[in-house]
Amino acid sequence: MTLAEQVKAKFFNSVTEAYTDKGDEVVRVKRESIKALLSSLKKDPDFDFDLLMDVFAVDYLHWEEKEIRFEVNYNLFSLKKNHRLFIKCGVPELDAQIDSAVSVWPAADWYEREVWDMMGIVFNGHPNLKRILMYESFQGHPLRKDYPYNRRQPIIGPVN
Predict the structure, then answer these.
(1) Would you say residue 114 has pLDDT above 80?
(2) Widest CA span of the chain, in angstroms?
(3) Phi and psi of 130, rounded to 5°?
(4) Whether the predicted pLDDT of 159 surpasses 70
(5) Is residue 81 over pLDDT 70?
(6) Phi (first) and psi of residue 113, to 5 degrees
(7) Were 55 and a residue from 8, 65, 86, 111 both cysteine, which residue would form a disulfide, CB within 3.0 to 4.6 Å?
(8) Rounded to the nearest 5°, which phi and psi values hold at 65?
């Protein structure tokens, strides 16, 4: 049984799909279960995912086969067991929010801020969700596929 199948068998209420893609173990998770699942995968000695490698988002705006616009991806790694798992969680366009993982892995702080800044996905419970790459008065989220690339932004200058 693959790692993804083990996760699905143990967390069958949260995981909707488990598969291997080009050698990577992947599970799809219900949005409302994400924080509990991440916490369990970190604490469970069978999985022991002690390292959050990355959090990123994908915009599927023009993909006809995708029912949901955004997907938040978590790249987990276990140093003790030397295995990796990708967790994918769909986020709808009209309710672009998901629970924060900062209380599980403090490193999620910067990753989630970047996803919010670039894609506009809100992380509920995040302690300091503010821009990290763009300046504070920047309007919009530049990595969304519908962001107008030629949009004029407010000019910023020296602060007195």
Answers:
(1) yes
(2) 62
(3) -140, 170
(4) no
(5) yes
(6) -60, -40
(7) 111
(8) -80, -10
